[in-house]
């Protein structure tokens, strides 16, 4: 049940982020170009699993993307657009089962440890 709730939560965040993105009339091109950009954080795994998991998790937690949404909403449309795409990416990952990583390996996520 907990896994299902995390998948549904990810789907809700993904849908809401996309709704907000288009509500503010941001364009398709930026969305297409940047939707998978946070996955570049996987390059940290070229160093080692510990560094890789830290970098990946920093780019795949809602804390920073939602701070960007708030600051962007208040001050800067470009930051708002990028942060909404970033948040949508995280939601999309959660929706399909990609979670935060443990230092033991890329495939060892918080989804795997939830029963």
Explain what you see.
The chain is mostly helical and 115 residues long. The protein has one domain (2-109). 64% of the residues lie in helices and 6% in strands. It has five helices and two strands. The chain has helices at 2-23, 28-34, 49-59, 62-75, 77-96, and strands at 101-102, 105-109. Strands 1-2 form a two-stranded antiparallel sheet. Helix 1 packs antiparallel against helix 5 and helix 4 runs antiparallel to helix 5. The radius of gyration is 14 Å and the shape is globular. The termini are close together. The model has no long low-confidence stretch (mean pLDDT 94).
How many domain units? 1
Shape: globular
Order of helices and strands: HHHHHEE
Number of H- or I-type helical stretches: 5
Alpha-carbon Rg, integer: 14 Å
If you average the pLDDT, what whole number results? 94
Main sheet makeup = 2 strands, antiparallel
Q: Give me the side-by-side strand order of the main sheet.
A: 1-2
pLDDT < 50 stretches: none
Approximate strand percentage: 5-15%
Helical fraction: 55-70%
Structural class: mainly alpha
- According to DSSP, the number of beta strands is 2
Give the N-to-C terminal Cα separation.
Answer: 8 Å
């Amino acid at each position: 049940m907990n896994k299902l709730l995390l998948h549904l939560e990810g789907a809700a965040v993904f849908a809401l982020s996309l709704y907000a993105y288009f509500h503010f009339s941001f364009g398709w091109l930026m969305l297409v170009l940047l939707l998978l950009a946070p996955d570049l954080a996987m390059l940290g795994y070229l160093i080692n699993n510990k560094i890789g998991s830290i970098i990946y998790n920093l780019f795949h937690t809602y804390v920073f993307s939602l701070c960007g949404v708030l600051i962007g909403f208040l001050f800067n449309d470009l930051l708002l657009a990028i942060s909404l795409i970033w948040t949508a990416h995280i939601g999309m990952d959660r929706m399909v089962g990609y979670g935060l990583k443990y230092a033991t390996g890329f495939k060892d996520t918080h989804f795997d440890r939830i029963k």
